[in-house]
Amino acid sequence: PGGAHVRACFIQDKNAETFSLTSAFYKKQLQKDLIHNVLKNKTWGSYRHMLLDQHNNSATLHVEHAYVNTLTRGDLASLKWIEGPLTYYKPDGKSSLCTVYYAPLNFRDIMLATGKLPPDALPGDLAGQECIMGLEFSGRDDLGRRVMGMVDARSLATTCIADPEFLWEVPEKWSLEEAATIPVVYGTSYYALIVRGQLQPGESVLIHAGAGGVGQASIAIALHMGCTVFTTVGSQAKRDFLKKTFPQLKDENIGNSRDTSFEQLIMKQTRGRGVDVILNSLAAHQLQASVRCLAMGGRFCEIGKVDLSNNSPLGMNVFLKNTSFHGILLDALLGTDNRDKPEIIKLMNEGIKSGAVRPLPRIVFNENQTEQAFRYMASGKHIGKVLLQIREEETRKNLVPAMKTVSAIARTYMDPDKTYVLVGGLGGFGLELAHWLIFRGATKIMLTSRSGVKTGYQSLCIRRWRAKGVNVKVSTTEATTEKGAIKLLKEASEMGPVGGIFNLAAVLRDAMMENQSEADFKTVTVPKVDSAKHLDAASRALAPHLDHFVVFSSVSCGRGNAGQANYGLANSAMERICETRQAAGLPGLAIQWGAIADVGLIIETMGGNETEVGGTLPQRITSCLNTMDIFLQQPHAVVSSVVLAEKKKGAGSGSELSIMDAVANILGLKDLKNISPTASLGDLGMDSLMGSEIKQTLERNYDMTLSAQEIRALTFGRLGELASGGAPVTASETVVTNGTKSHESNDGQVQFDLSVDIMPHKVLLNMSKEVDNKKTPIFVVHPIEGSVHILQSLADKIQVPVYGLQCTTMCPMDSINDLAKYYVNEIKTVQKKGPYTLIGYSFGACVAFEMGIQLETLGERVKLLLLDGSHSYVATHTKNKKKGDTAVEQSGALVFFINQFKEIDQAKVMMELAVMKSWEERLNRATEILSGHTPYTDKDVRAAAGSFYYKLVAADKYKPTATFKGEITLVKAIDNFVSAGEDYGLGSVCKQKVVVQPLEGNHRSILQGKTVQKIADILHNIVGKA
User: Fewer CB within a 10 Å sphere, N or C end of the chain?
Assistant: First the structure.
């Protein structure tokens, strides 16, 4: 307080005259009324924070070693070349540094880049590494020989480290481009079909996706062995290609991979026997259909990763045929000693000699077309392999290739031969920094702490690092004296030359000046100033190969903070030491950190990650480490990093493209001049994968949250308005006469219609108009709102009696089983005996499914038509919600319910409800908030809110107790971007094949317009009426 009245002169010029207020030299400067006046090199200046010229996401560096990766997982537009760690590679006799000429793409790479496959699903410790893409390559080894090989990862690069055992010399008759199509597809095929599947000459085999790389390789191997081959493709062009490439294949050998019709083809051609071996890459209900194609004693080889990583159920009855199921993870063999490796190597060598192994068709992209290559392969249009050409082949003779560089984003890596010293390294930030240094290549770490290892977490970190082969030592030597600093660096030098010194030490003694003492100042300055001073002096003599001299300063030094004059002084002194080092041509960097989240002083003393400190928010530790990478590459001695509390709207820092260009890029549109501004994204060919990517991009980079249907209806004209600051017109808001807003959730899953009762009063409702009541009726189960009103347009088009089941206050809500039993008794008042036809929409699909099981238990025949829902549909939407805290669950449901009728501060209301003691209190408060904002009585609103929550809980907990045996059809909304699998998980709980009927529209719009008639037609086919 009062600091605005202070004026300071900081004289860093030894030849300057003695300071005096009467001196004309100083008087002239002070008249400028600067708070800080700095004299340095005979020049006056002041301290200011200037924005750093950041190029952290730009390819500004030309490097020899680089790899391809996405900067943002799931965003193909963020695919970039990034500087790699192989600068420090040294031959060890166990591996070979190879130069990559061609880097093939595999579906694992596509799944990783698009976010469909989590890194945790990869074998070994790959999930913890940055460079994880690439499984194979062709190029030259360290002796200049032409080779092709497989690696566990990191071959989508300019150079890579390969296991010599999994390298094959390229025959002279093949180019490196041709050779690049060989390793993974044939390695996978031999491993799956021969090593694990034990395929024998004369047996039969089903190979899915036959036009793909593995498909073609497997067909070639199987035909070479004299086996009967069946395969599937997704287009006529691919069918024609296979028939031309493999004349032995006829139309009766080739099925459709887009549906499950191949099952009938296989059973017909094998006369009901099935096939001996299946090589499967299809997912969901197509996987289940494939399993049913196995013959007695058959072997099922799964090379797809979707169902494996999603832990999809298989069903044990498959093993009643004495079958076996094999998960084929070729990448799990790479980099390990495995008994199957020699066999694969032998089979590959034999296949090359015999001619069974031959190059595949391919399409080649150059090194600057990585995004185009990924998008092309993701589209599924390719036949054979997709290759990235890194460099051109010079000759087919042996030669050591000349060095080639690519433009890449710079990264900081540590020299594995050097030692990195962290003063205060056992603190929260110190342990994180040590982990980051190891992640970036360090293998020798010296951590200092006056008290040594004190906590279990510190001990755990050290044990983990040592288990990875990192040499970690903990020293209690203090660097606050000259002798201590010399001793510490000598200890570190015994491990290896000192490559980095990081001073993270900090002690706080905060107080206003009138309460400060000399002892407090010494306590604060000694670990910072004295350590920095003595380490500076000692390192000049004992660390001649030093790359980094880094001290952790604070924004309280650069900006000032009340009560921290001593802390500011200590940090300022360290900064001046770094400036002096840089002037002498030595490394020196002081980082003024703001508040740090997750670990350290702020978390320990002031609260959580959202604690506001002086207009700033704590910076998350991952962000700090990413910032460290930037700081270690720039030339300034003093830098600063803070997170402003006020969030900036509009395009984020990661958004270099305009919103229109970003969306056009995802859609593959090259020139917007030829695109109509009124054409919707749906009209322009947006599929669900593109829709998901556009949704993520708008939310991440432009702070816009739109539903799937709103994205589909967007036009480039509207995108232009949004880019200019216009507000999005959403389909989820409509004004009604009483001044209330009727809301639809962002994904359209819930919508209360204000024109009908919010709480139905009749359970069984006759929805028919003029139909023949002698015909067998159909029963329709309500969505989660409880009313069947939204299904009336469908009922009007059904040519048999239709009865709707509605949830009233009389219905039991303890479980789906109880509710289904209640509804079964209701429908028996209209139709005493089966067969029954049930329709369930959304939540109602869950209830209808259980009704079907209960009716079958009673000996009745049942047909189910589920409209965009299943037994697990609601649970799919609630799985990411916080479980276990009943107060939070109840409050979240009520806030969602309230928000359907009235705009509220959701976070505030959520907190208000969560602290209440009981469900009754929360329900009463929710009713009170909505009182007068709906056309309903408070009693009905209260009943509806309670019913809504009870239905959520019941559906979330529901697990079918039996398998449904009857006919079942699922109508899916194409624009409902829900992660529930191709058949919404029904295949695992149904005995018969689930017939999936995709229809245009979203969760709501499929019950409107032309699609209603399509649903009615589907129903009429089910019940046998044209």
Answer: C
